[in-house]
Design goal:
1 helix; 4 strands; Nucleotidyltransferase, domain 5; about 40% strand; 4-stranded mixed β-sheet; alpha+beta; about 70 residues
Amino acid sequence: MCYFPLENYVDAPSNISGNGAGIVLISPEEHVLEYSVHFEFPTTKNVVEYKAFLVGLCLAKALNAYLLQAHSYS
């Protein structure tokens, strides 16, 4: 089991048709894990960023991260 800090970057598209977001987790050794999520329901950019942040938290937990620094580009 690995315990390490991560950085979580979240961004949502600014167009109306985009109900998805990008999530990037970066380790201190600069290993980059990129994920994208798409939501099958109508939503706003703020809701998409919030949901993507929660997905990032779940991913970090699954990776046994003990510290998470979060960034959002809103």
